[in-house]
Amino acid sequence: MKEKILVTGGAGYIGSHTAVELIERGYEVVIIDDLSNSEETVLDGIESITGTRPDLAVFDICDEAKLELFFQAHPDIAAIIHFAAAKAVGESVSRPLHYYRNNILSLVNLLEVLPTTQAKGIVFSSSCTVYGQPDTLPVTEEEPVKKALSPYGNTKQICEEILQDAIASGADYRTIALRYFNPIGAHPSAKIGELPRGVPNNLVPFITQTGAGLREKIQIFGDDYNTPDGTCVRDYIHVVDLAKAHVIATERILKKTAPEQYEFFNLGTGKGSSVKEIVDTFEKVSGKELPKTISPRRAGDVEAVYADTRRANEVLGWKSELGLEEMISSAWAWEKSIRGIES
Q: Where is the NAD(P)-binding domain (predicted)?
């Protein structure tokens, strides 16, 4: 019998790609998503790729009563992958209370109900934002967690502390926090990908939407950083590589192979790329030159951050495989697919 995995936020960008990888590894997937930043049609893409349509429960997991009812209906969930969270750095600066309520309460509700279930543990979607502006690059897991530069980053720090405190209190489940860097790209089938509502907060969908004619020009927020070309540097990772890491972490929890109940890992490529490099790569793979403008620095943005991935490579046995051109090409193929643009 297939083991059942709950994916919260599973209709979202990373969640949907992880659902695909789980199904292709032989797991049964159930999804909770309030569809506040996603579309139910994403399930069509998952089904088209895998031949299986995961069950979807539409509600906000901040609603404790509905969450309890859900677990009563699904008593056989073996593990949880928790993506459901608000995630835009800039928006979190202007709407901090929304981020604190949504991101923290959702995790607390899951952890309160977890001991009443058969689930062996939870894989938590964390972020490199927990490091703030790190002292050294690349960032190892030994880098101190600094004061967050945004409410979004602070919610991830607080959530990791909650997970550690829950384990220290005697909880018998296992947790793995995956601190990932900047996921981009789309499934190679171009049947699922990043689909933000309204104006994108993330760089790559803004670029692809500009290429598709939906946006007038690219805004580069700051070109006076202490980086090789003056623009922010990030560690961009293909969303499919990231999804595979979540499957590996889930299996580690299911098999109870970890020596400790709480673990955390950086997920990235180990290489930093600047905003300008991302724009240049899109222009190369698409054959389109994009109009650009330089805007002031954006509140909450870190100058440069990229990962040391050795712990994930050695302990999880995971390594990123896809390069920058593959990331950007797949994102552009997805954009063209949803806009009906001929190749």
A: 6-329
